[in-house]
Amino acid sequence: MERRVSLKESITSPIQLRLFCLLKALTTPCSKFHQREREREMEGIRKLLRVFSLLLSGLLLLLFTRSWLHLPNTPFDKAQLLDCSNYSPWCTSKNRFQSEIILNPRTPNPTRNHKSQIPHHPLDPLTIQEINKVRTIVSSYPPFKSSSFTVHSLTLEEPEKPLVLSWKKGDPLFPRKASVTALVKGQSHVLTVDLGSNQVSRHDIGSDSGYPMMTIEDMTTATWAPLANASFNHTILNRGIDLADLACLPISTGWFGKKEEKRRLIKIQCYSMQGTANFYMRPIEGLTVLLDMDTKEVVELSDQGRDIPIPKADNTDYRFSAQNTGEEIKMKHLNPISIEQPKGPSFTIEDEHMVKWANWEFHLKPDPRAGVVISRAMVRDSETGELRNVMYKGLTSELFVPYMDPTDAWYFKTYMDAGEYGFGLQAMPLDPLNDCPRNAQYMDGVFAAADGTPFVRSNMVCVFERYAGDIGWRHAESPITGMEIREVRPKVTLVVRMAASVANYDYIVDWEFQTDGLIRIKVGLSGILMVKGTPYVNMNQVPGQEDLHGTLLSENVIGVIHDHYITFYLDMDVDGSDNSFVKVNIERQDTSPGESPRKSYLKAKRHVAKTEKDAQIKLKLYDPSEFHVINPSKKTRVGNPVGYKVVPGGTAASLLDHNDPPQMRGAFTNNQIWVTPYNRSEQWAGGEFVYQSQGEDTLAVWSERNRAIENKDIVLWYTLGFHHIPCQEDFPIMPTVSSSFDLKPVNFFESNPILRMPPNVEKDLPVCKAAASA
Amino acid sequence: MERRVSLKESITSPIQLRLFCLLKALTTPCSKFHQREREREMEGIRKLLRVFSLLLSGLLLLLFTRSWLHLPNTPFDKAQLLDCSNYSPWCTSKNRFQSEIILNPRTPNPTRNHKSQIPHHPLDPLTIQEINKVRTIVSSYPPFKSSSFTVHSLTLEEPEKPLVLSWKKGDPLFPRKASVTALVKGQSHVLTVDLGSNQVSRHDIGSDSGYPMMTIEDMTTATWAPLANASFNHTILNRGIDLADLACLPISTGWFGKKEEKRRLIKIQCYSMQGTANFYMRPIEGLTVLLDMDTKEVVELSDQGRDIPIPKADNTDYRFSAQNTGEEIKMKHLNPISIEQPKGPSFTIEDEHMVKWANWEFHLKPDPRAGVVISRAMVRDSETGELRNVMYKGLTSELFVPYMDPTDAWYFKTYMDAGEYGFGLQAMPLDPLNDCPRNAQYMDGVFAAADGTPFVRSNMVCVFERYAGDIGWRHAESPITGMEIREVRPKVTLVVRMAASVANYDYIVDWEFQTDGLIRIKVGLSGILMVKGTPYVNMNQVPGQEDLHGTLLSENVIGVIHDHYITFYLDMDVDGSDNSFVKVNIERQDTSPGESPRKSYLKAKRHVAKTEKDAQIKLKLYDPSEFHVINPSKKTRVGNPVGYKVVPGGTAASLLDHNDPPQMRGAFTNNQIWVTPYNRSEQWAGGEFVYQSQGEDTLAVWSERNRAIENKDIVLWYTLGFHHIPCQEDFPIMPTVSSSFDLKPVNFFESNPILRMPPNVEKDLPVCKAAASA
């Protein structure tokens, strides 16, 4: 049974739809758009639309040039920004930042008046004022003054690591610098802008293959650029789709050979949003537009799936408002449940970015490419009271998401979500009470748009304390010893969360800090599958199941097999910068005859990695190891080197041919663990310029140099991997699947650091009652 | 600095200590026992003690025979049971069960008046009355009437599976039966006692190697039996240990050759509890007593570690009361935090054992061997409203914990905690607010003591709803599409928890039920390490680090390397009993020249296991598979077979020689996954009689028969594994380490079963304030 979805409900605000609505209003009232039987009208308006589409394309290009691509000479316009309703596409890139947003009146956020914000810490991100200043400097910088340019990245250029390490609260800040990546006439430029001298102090021109990550404006404009192409519109109409129901996605092209070189290309695929907000489930299969992102020229139009029906809208809408509330929901009602902290949270966020909780302190900032950056993570030693370094910097360096279908409309889907789309740019405002519990506090991102103007991504990150009913440690004496002991400590942790929606998929990234010194890095996958249209409606029609490249999820819908790899950059500084990587191999040792009634046992053998190749690790279940980052110069009281180990999880490994172009670009997934010497320029595992890159600047290439890593400032890289064979439960939206890995102290503390933690007692717990209105 | 621990505080109630206290009072006041300088007195009282020890041993044996080993002919004595303070060794085996225990007044438990309890469901455990009746029947059963016997197991003999499957609420119960395992003159007898006819209807005599699991009384008496041995007492005193400070542990001997045959042997190792409740950290290294458990005869005394000092008590006590509160605790204070449900939990426990929550229903019961048994787990289909079978029965079948030290005092430590010690017998009462959150409800275990009398293990299991701030599913539209959508659902789950304290170690077992149909089975390891004494105080004294067999944790303390394997029995009944096991292999497929710009992609290839050997799975990261249990006769609307998959986690694999005696006994860990055809007698992976078994009745032996398993009633076995190289953070008590695996629907539902779940809204959440007294 098809359910009617009102236009307002499902597709509010996209400019293109408003335009189409106006357009179509000439022949039929807009409110009637969503009638199921409209095919009858189609034939009549088709010719008319073709004429309009040509007119429209001109109009669109004009609008674009004015709105986004042309750098405005007028200063920052407050009135313009104020005229902005929440979540419109305009506002997501140029969000209101003048207003203080308090989403949860019970745990009011610290004042978030970004306009008057000033930096307090050398690692604090650029402020609104600083971004504006950078834009002014760059605009008047001679090589940029004469040509139009687009800003693809405008972020703090962090001071050199030794400077940051020496800095203490109260010290003056080092001169602030910005790193700007801009495209001018198709060429990548990287500038350092010195905010002290108001000068461009460095100007490099990109040499390697690849382009900077797309701007939001790139992606948005790409989605409707094909409408300027008559053939495109023709095939859409021929497939019986109302242009007003069209939703298109910009899909990074990857790199597969020469033809992708020398211009920025993108592929566009489209969907019908008729009858559902979940257009992703209604692919117009086999139709792919290859577009020049800069000229908006349609380079190629591949139209191979005309016989494949568009899957029906039935049962695809996931919004609560779209559920049939008339039908009885058979799952038993759940009583309200909440994590409650009536005295408020135990953490503070000082100076906007320094998070202090229990024994932890770290600097937290949103980043347009990485999403969340954790810096200077330090843990207080419960014995000495000393704050000890654990990690200088940790971030999501790159993602690699290859789909497993070699056919025309699918082979190129090998996303690298950070370097291509901006993992932070795609992190939308979190939904209080659902994305994060009520006791959460929120942090905004301040980023730059393509024209260099600042915008605010509100509530991009949340921080909350988590009590999941878990146990920190326990021991009860058994009747064997007869001692009356039962000591148990609840486990409370601190979570930093963001959720990036890279088109269909949602990635939830949690950095969880535990009082026992452990850091758990967890990635949850939810959101919506990228599906493929098919003529099949039942598996009994399918001759070779393996050739489906996935699972038949619903009539005419295949969930295509794919992998997810999320590679983390972890600049460990265990009690100082100079560390070593030690593989502690667990090996079977056979006993000598007569030595023992046992024939075998396991031994731990330590191997210190001398060079990078010693630390290229493929995990092996039957040849297991622990992986320690130790400080060889610092030992515990009984002489063990202090260390942290990486405890693998989410261990799916890439099985693609290493010479397959996508795997060359995603070669950082060739091993699960890598260790490199610290190098300021090696932070992005897929390379600085990932878009259309050919893989010559990846972690795999750097590591091949086989540099010395013993007793050096080293960086640990860990890749969380998932193989995903979709199943029907993933339709029309996926229950979250999570994996995590841990950074865990190993002989870092002299003893259990949470020994003295008190147990819960009834009198400390909150007194709660049901909400009055419930 | 040594801290003085009062006797009352640390060692209340063990009978042996009270006796020693009396004894020692002859020469010195009891209150002075814990003076550090008492070595001076020792010489003088040593000879006296030797005399007393002989007297004492006679006294103890007499006491034992009367109290535990001899079956009382008097009926159940209420007065005796009432005279019982919480947690004394006596009370743990003969706990009060006449009183209603309400630990948390805010979520009162259903009446737990076990005396009047009656069974409601065919799988309900035996009641107090039934156990008493069984004891009466067995006591008057001719072969048992004339000899003394000890009851090692007395549990419900479940009706045949088809009967249980056909039973519906309201139907009369089938005749109740008990299965009794008893030792008579060193021989194992297994009886079926029919409670309808009051007859013993089956009587088998154990034929295989091995003995039934120990009784609590076996273990308790074994710990002080060595005191009857003069050489033992001599060496203890020679090592400078006050007998009043002695704490001994019963360690299962395993099986290593002929000499263990034909009698029940146990090894005893001892510790000093002087100055600490954590005696486990103060081993009397190298002293091992081999004891005949039935005659109490010391068979062998191995005393090899006289030069090894007993590690100091400093910093070993983990009790909150023993922490130095004078010293400032440097970790920041955490504000109270709690999972709150002011309207109460959303689940009900009907008829004592049927848990109903959200879309789940299952039968839950405590078991002395397995700990917790989940039966008849069914999930309600949100589309049809139908309750669908998922799992007939799930339980912890066996544990295997081999230590990795081949030397005299360590080689035999290869515990099988369920079949040797009773995983449920060792599950102590949970600590409300710390072991389980405030919204938990508790369930008691009703077990039989060695004399066949019933006792209650109160609060052995808890059930609670868990909200951890996690996300069930989410999607936000990005500015690319411009749609104003942000739909997020919080994740609430139901947890069933128990915690077994098998001497030093604590195992936390969680069965977590999710509304999306997933069952997560999680094992947390905490408690206290089994450590080894050493002369070393610093690693710089150690010539060959690998020969330590572990990590130097503190001065004179080595944490020995060991593994943990927890093997689960999972009788899956996916929409019916006849299921198949399908390995869905993810394989690389290379493209043909010209086929695609891609060189490679991954394909999913399905292999249906025909026989048991097809389903002996060693996990491989570089040859990955999914593992489905499907119902080949039931397909979804689009034709996929309905199924559940096991999602591995905690994948450490045993690396020991398959012919090593411990690995022969623990051969069920030779693979991570096994599938067997359902066989009523094959429930315990290490065999029915595990104690001193030789491995001829394990899962590995059964599976070797290579029976057909396609489209049959099949049982899935999964082993969670941990390699544990201890680190200093594990001293003196270990922060919990957890691993889990999942049973996850795969094309079981037509679509996402939690699509219609509502989001959280502020008005439904509780209103909480800080507790008045806080």
From TrEMBL, chains A, B:
UniProt KW Membrane keyword: yes
Keyword Transmembrane helix recorded: yes
PTM notes: Topaquinone (TPQ) is generated by copper-dependent autoxidation of a specific tyrosyl residue.
E.C. no: 1.4.3.-
Pfam name, any one: Cu_amine_oxidN2
Residue ranges annotated for the Copper amine oxidase catalytic domain, each copy included: 338-754
GO BP field: amine metabolic process
PROSITE patterns, alphabetized: COPPER_AMINE_OXID_1, COPPER_AMINE_OXID_2
Domain (Copper amine oxidase N2-terminal) ranges: 121-203
GO molecular function, one term: primary methylamine oxidase activity
InterPro entries from the UniProt entry: Cu_Am_Ox_Cu-bd, Cu_Am_ox_TPQ-bd, Cu_amine_oxidase, Cu_amine_oxidase_C, Cu_amine_oxidase_C_sf, Cu_amine_oxidase_N-reg, Cu_amine_oxidase_N2, Cu_amine_oxidase_N3
Cofactor(s) annotated in UniProt: Cu cation
Cofactor comment: Contains 1 topaquinone per subunit.
Domain named Copper amine oxidase N3-terminal: residues: 212-311
Annotated positions of the 2',4',5'-topaquinone modification: Y505
Domain of life: Eukaryota
Keywords, comma-separated and alphabetical: Copper, Disulfide bond, Membrane, Metal-binding, Oxidoreductase, TPQ, Transmembrane, Transmembrane helix
TM region(s), chain numbering: 48-69
Active-site feature positions: D417, Y505
Family the entry assigns: Belongs to the copper/topaquinone oxidase family.
UniProt xrefs under PANTHER family: AMINE OXIDASE (PTHR10638:SF41), COPPER AMINE OXIDASE (PTHR10638)
Protein name, UniProt field: Amine oxidase
